[in-house]
Amino acid sequence: MKSLAKLILEIEAKAILEVANNIDDSFIKAINSIMLCTGHIVVTGVGKSSIVGRKISATLSSTGTPSFFINAMDSLHGDLGAITKHDIILAISNSGETTELLQMIACLPRNIVISMTGNNNSTLAKQSSIIIDLHSNMKEACPLNLAPTSSTTSCLAMGDALAICLMVELKFSTADFKRLHPSGTLGKV
Questions:
Q1: pTM attached to this predicted model
Q2: Domains assigned to the chain
Q3: SS3 24
Q4: CB neighbours of 155 closer than 8 A, spacing ≥ 6?
Q5: pLDDT tens-digit map of 104-138
Q6: Which of 6, 120, 178, 184 has its Cα between 20 and 30 A from that of 28?
Q7: Helices 150-169 and 2-20: crossing angle, nearest 10°?
Q8: Residue 128, Ramachandran bin (φ over 0: left; ψ between -120 and 50: alpha; else beta)
Q9: Could you give the count of Cα atoms lying within 13 Å of 176 in the half-sphere of its Cβ?
Q10: For residues 127 and 103, is the Cβ–Cβ distance under 8 A?
Q11: What crossing angle do the helices spanning 48-62 and 150-169 adopt, rounded to 10°?
């Protein structure tokens, strides 16, 4: 079990390093678009992508970029009302073919859509203004190559890269951090 656990961590670490090589002008375009956004960054996804998306949204908000999360399935049942024309959509789907996510995007023709996907030829990528490439030649760490593992880890790391780059661009300070984290040990920084 120790050897297997080590192998899983090595596979996921290699996937992150591969995705790091995908940083290109599209990533910079995403940063610039978010910096100009007068609304919120609405992060969305389905399944494991939604769990990762919630964390990315929380990191964005806590480091100075206003953000909230909407599950794409819930958006189709009324939560679209929370999104304004001033918001940017950050859509997460490894396959880029998640039905509910594509339906949601189709309902929002005015918004800039930034996709984080492992398939740049997907329907989601084609419907996006900006594509952040999560493609990796690494398989999932799951021995069946099915459970989202390497792909979700890479997505989470790319979301952190996005949030921290924005934090630097915003000149987000220790005082800002304390203001947004008034409780807990982080607020005592």
A1: 0.95
A2: 2-188 (3.40.50.10490)
A3: coil
A4: 49, 52, 56, 92, 94, 116, 134
A5: 999 997 899 999 999 999 999 999 999 999 998 88
A6: 178
A7: 50
A8: beta
A9: 11
A10: no
A11: 20
d(CA 164, CA 131): 18
| Token couple for 113 | 């859509």
**CA–CA gap between residue 53 and residue 72 (Å, rounded):** 11
Alpha helices in the chain (DSSP H): 2-20, 25-36, 48-62, 72-75, 99-106, 123-126, 150-169, 174-180
CA distances from 105 to 37, 42, 158 (A): 18, 12, 21
- Is the separation of the CB atoms in 118 and 132 below 8 Å? no
Amino acid at 133: D
Which tokens belong to 15?
């996937």
DSSP code of residue 185 = T
CA distance linking residue 82 with residue 84, whole number of Å: 7
